[in-house]
């Protein structure tokens, strides 16, 4: 797969896990998942032009033979889900071995594959650095079905980390412009000064299902610093002189623990999934917790 994001042996595991992916919000188009609404049945609704990635079993071959144009059958009782993956591309993700960004891209690739291999739609929203002469977010074209996997992986492989991002910007944009609710997956270290949980609350109030994936480096949870140090902020380039004594380490750990607790508490209040992992953690374990809708 593109840029080694998904190894062949890992894809076999994802094929099993895709059956467990539950999306509580539905976006209302035609797909492979049958809704559980009372009185629903597989009633034919209409045709639409065939799109790459559509299930070939849904192609109306008789209509194709008559017109020469491939069309896909839509059914009233079925709804497909839009999975919107928000990926943080701030400079703080370019840290660790492997880097947090590398781990975040692989997580996003796995989530996208789970959705697309299940016949759903997926699109990528990248939180870009602000103040670099471009919009603070980038939205790639929606992908549908297995045919969209390669394009999604190509989009992910191009994401680079730099600068300071406004992680709430793509979440607010989804709330403002999404025609129907779906699953919003945010992959980040959540080292963001903006009102991220406020934007997430708006998304939840608008009917979106939420999954929050926090990627940290192990040294951010267990710092090994000592003595007088000159530290440079990866996003702002500001230099800070610190003495890494026991009191300073304790103050730092209280702050990062507070951040983790804030996200965890939000997930509990709003019925969201929250998965926290270090960048060197095996991806399969993380994805299993994700489809189980864990709150770490």
Overview of the structural elements:
Helices cover 34% and strands 24% of the residues. With 296 residues, the chain is of the alpha/beta class. The protein has 2 domains: 2-25 and 81-291, 3-Layer(aba) Sandwich (Rossmann fold), CATH 3.40.50.410; 29-78, no CATH class. Strands 5, 6, 7, 8, 9, 10 and 13 form a 7-stranded mixed β-sheet that branches. Helix 1 runs parallel beside helix 9 (283-291) and helix 5 packs parallel to helix 6. The longest helix has 25 residues, at 246-270. The protein is elongated, with a radius of gyration of 21 Å. The two termini are 29 Å apart. Mean pLDDT is 84; it is low at 26-41.
Quickly describe the structure.
With 296 residues, this protein is of the alpha/beta class.
What is the percent of helical residues? 25-40%
Unreliable spans: 26-41
- Please report the first level of CATH classification, the CATH class of the largest domain: Alpha Beta
What is the element string, with H for helices and E for strands?
HEEHEEEHEEEHHEHEHEEHEH
Assign the CATH architecture of the largest domain.
3-Layer(aba) Sandwich
| Radius of gyration from CA coordinates | 21 Å
* Backbone structural class: alpha/beta
Sheet with the most strands? 7 strands, mixed
Described by its quaternary structure, the protein is single chain
CATH superfamily of the largest domain: von Willebrand factor, type A domain
Q: Tell me the number of strands.
A: 13
Number of domains: 2
Proportion of strand residues: 15-25%
Topology, element by element:
Layout: H1 8-17, E1 29-34, E2 44-49, H2 61-67, E3 71-75, E4 78-80, E5 82-88, H3 100-117, E6 121-127, E7 137-139, E8 143-144, H4 149-157, H5 168-177, E9 183-188, H6 196-205, E10 209-216, H7 218-221, E11 227-232, E12 239-244, H8 246-270, E13 273-278, H9 283-291
Parallel strand pairs: 5-6, 5-9, 9-10, 10-13
Antiparallel strand pairs: 1-4, 2-3, 6-7, 6-8, 11-12
Helix pairs in contact: 1-3, 1-9, 3-4, 5-6
């Amino acid at each position: 797969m593109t840029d080694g994001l998904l190894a062949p042996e890992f894809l076999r595991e994802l094929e099993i896990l895709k059956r467990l992916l539950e999306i509580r919000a539905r976006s209302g188009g035609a797909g492979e998942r049958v809704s559980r609404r009372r009185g629903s049945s597989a009633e034919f609704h209409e045709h639409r032009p065939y799109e790459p990635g559509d299930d070939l079993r849904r192609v109306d071959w008789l209509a194709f033979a008559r017109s020469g144009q491939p069309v896909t059958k839509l059914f009233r009782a079925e709804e497909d889900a839009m999975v919107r993956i928000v990926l943080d591309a701030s400079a703080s993700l370019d840290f660790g071995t492997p880097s947090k960004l590398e781990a975040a891209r692989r997580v996003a690739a796995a989530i996208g594959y789970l959705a697309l291999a299940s016949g759903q739609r997926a699109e990528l929203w990248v939180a870009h650095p602000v103040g670099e002469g471009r919009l603070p977010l980038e939205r790639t074209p929606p992908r549908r079905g297995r045919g969209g996997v390669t394009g999604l992986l190509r989009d992910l492989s191009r994401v680079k980390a730099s600068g300071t991002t406004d992680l709430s910007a793509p979440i607010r944009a989804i709330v403002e412009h999404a025609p129907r609710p779906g699953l919003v997956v945010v992959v980040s270290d959540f080292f963001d000064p903006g009102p991220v949980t406020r934007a997430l609350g708006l998304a939840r109030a608008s009917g979106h299902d939420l999954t929050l994936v926090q990627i940290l480096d192990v040294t951010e949870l267990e710092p090994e610093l000592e003595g007088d140090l000159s530290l440079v902020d990866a996003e702002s380039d500001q230099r800070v002189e610190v003495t890494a004594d026991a009191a300073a380490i304790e103050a730092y750990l209280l702050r990062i623990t507070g951040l983790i607790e804030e996200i965890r508490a939000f997930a509990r209040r709003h019925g969201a999934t929250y998965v926290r992992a270090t960048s060197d953690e095996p991806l399969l374990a993380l994805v299993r917790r994700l489809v189980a809708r864990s709150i770490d």
